[in-house]
Design brief:
The chain is α/β, with parallel strands linked by helices. The chain is built from six helices and six strands; from the N terminus they run E-H-E-H-E-H-E-H-E-E-H-H. The N terminus is likely disordered. Helix 1 packs across helix 5. Strands 3-2-1-4-5-6 form a six-stranded parallel β-sheet, sandwiched between helices. Strand 4, helix 4 and strand 5 form a beta-alpha-beta unit.
Length: 184
């Protein structure tokens, strides 16, 4: 399905990439929030891509919430971009991220993006197309529901332009030198 467009009666695939090994990814919040989304819109589907030691806990949470027919754990994938390209929306439920590369990947696929708020999310993309929500279950649910209502636009990232901008910024930083170095 074309990202950003909704087809009546079709399933709506929401995808999350993040290794279920780190509690800061907060997959548990994602599943709780998605349960409420699915209760409101049974066409919604969730795919969590990544493997790790918390995967069995998440599988149990999915069963406990009765979501085993609409929420899935793919396990680790070497090339998850094909799953991103098949999705309708990308959701990030992290408590924090360093450089959220997965947001760049989702934007390169032209997906609408819903993300919890953390320090680096606002500057992750050149254009402010990410629906940034508070780091709680209700806000994440509301962000996903906003996507389903067509209120979250697709994010776009032109790779060559992005690389050129990053290169200019890096050169600027290198020209300034190391601000922590002692003066000569």
């Amino acid at each position: 399905m074309d990202a950003g467009a909704r087809e009546s009666g079709a399933d709506h695939e929401v995808v999350h990439l993040g290794r279920p090994a780190l509690p800061e990814k907060n997959h548990a919040r994602l599943i709780r929030s998605f349960a409420e989304v699915h209760a409101e819109d049974p066409s919604a589907r969730l795919l969590i891509v990544g493997g790790g030691p918390l995967q069995s806990d998440l599988a149990a949470q999915i069963v406990e919430a009765g979501l085993q027919d609409c929420a899935f754990l793919s396990g680790r994938r070497n090339q998850p971009v094909s799953l991103l390209m098949a999705a309708d929306c990308f959701v990030l439920s992290s408590n924090y991220e360093g450089q959220p590369m997965v947001l760049l990947e989702a934007a390169l696929c032209g997906l609408p993006i819903v993300s919890t708020a953390f320090a680096s999310v606002e500057d992750a993309l050149p254009e402010p197309t990410i629906r940034v929500v508070a780091t709680d279950d209700a806000a994440l649910r509301d962000g996903m529901l906003a996507y389903l209502r067509g209120e979250v636009p697709p994010s776009r990232l032109e790779f060559d332009d992005y690389v050129a901008d990053v290169t200019v910024e890096l050169e600027r930083v290198l020209e300034l030198g190391d601000p922590a170095a002692p003066a000569a």
